[in-house]
Amino acid sequence: MKPLSDILCNVEILRVHGDTDLKISGLEFDSRKVKPRSIFFAVKGGTSDGHNFIELAIEKGAIAVVCEQLPTSLHPEICYIEVRKTNIALGIMASNYFGNPSGNLALVGVTGTNGKTTTVTLLYRLFMELGFGVGLISTIINKINNNEIPASHTTPDPLQLNELLAKMVEAGCSYCFMEVSSHAIDQERIAGLTYRGGVFSNITHDHLDYHKTFEAYLKVKKRFFDFLPNNSFALVNKDDKNGMVMLQNTQAKKYTYSVKSMADFHCKILENQIHGLQLNFDGVEVFCKLIGIFNAYNLLSVYGTAMILGMDKTTVLTILSHMEPVEGRFNYVLSGDGITAIVDYAHTPDALQNVLETINTIREHHEQLITVVGAGGNRDATKRPVMAQIACNLSDRVILTSDNPRFEEPEVILSEMQQGVEKHQERKVLTIVNRLEAIKTACALAKSGDIVLVAGKGHETYQEIKGVKHHFDDKDILHQIFEHSDHINP
Question: Is residue 488 in a domain?
Answer without folding.
Answer: no
